[in-house]
Amino acid sequence: KHVVIGGGTGFIGTQIVNLLSHKGISYTCISRMPGPNRISWHDLECYGLPENTTAVINVAGQNILDPKQRWSEGFKQNVINSRVETTKSLAKAIIYTKADAFVTISGVSYYKPNDKEYTEESKCEKYDFLSKLCHEWEAAAQLPKDSNIRQTTIRSGVVLGKTGGMIKQIYLPFFFGLGGPIANGNQYMPWIHISDLVNLFLFSIENKTVHGILNGVAPQIITNKEFTKAFASVMQRPAFIPVPRIFLNSIFNKERVKIMLEGQKVIPKRVKELGFQYQYVDINCACAEVIGKNKL
Ligand code: NDP
Fold this sequence. Notes:
By secondary structure, the protein is an alpha/beta fold. It has 11 helices and 11 strands. Strand 8, helix 5 and strand 9 form a beta-alpha-beta unit.
């Protein structure tokens, strides 16, 4: 087996690589920076995928949570291209290989935030920048109808892990006791522990019955307020002071603020039906692992 991972150097990609190495599966990452076991996107365009490729994953994408980035039109275009164009390049290249699985990431922003419960079967129209992005990202992963390659899209919730994503951003404020719910904290926060997400990628590669959309979220539905309570509790810090909406609106672009103020109620119906076993089904256990306290 040989797996190619677009974005294999990032927070999620590195954990996928670690799991593959642990299982003795060889891999190649696609990155903008040279390094061992890496090819560039340009190499992919020119020479295609390595001949021995058996599965392809794409988790590349310009970081949308980076607080240093201003959401200019140029940045937004970068956000789109780094996901849609990389996915398109891989979809184009995979058909010339003997690979049997193509697994790409998308986001729960595909679903419109309201009180509705969304399963993988729910259809949503595009309604804002991020949902439009998810639609284009998922369309880019589609393979020709006559292809025998299983194509899976994992619509991921907020990924909880020590080394990146949201936790990396909020760790210090919470550490100094400055953490708190965002606005009233009643917005849903679809979440998944990094180990479960990475296992879901491997499950999708290895399990011949998996294809189509999977909601990459834990089965437990929580709100931002509940997450804040769980995280502050394992950090042993107070987190009572809410981050006011007006403060967020004054420093961040409206699309970025929406990510923080809105959330969807997402159910991993197909993931459960397919028999995937989660390691973290409870937010307290997930937070405890993330900050290194193995409370079970
Ligand atoms: P990281 O920022 O840690 O990693 C992103 C990866 O994408 C890096 O490996 C980087 O590779 C590559 N990348 C960054 N910018 C570009 C670009 N302009 N062109 C091509 N490649 C680029 O992100 P995560 O691992 O957290 O997330 C990976 C993907 O998963 C993203 O698309 C993200 O939207 C999606 N996702 C993440 C969630 C989360 O909570 N973390 C939730 C839902 C979806 P290099 O620098 O080596 O080229």
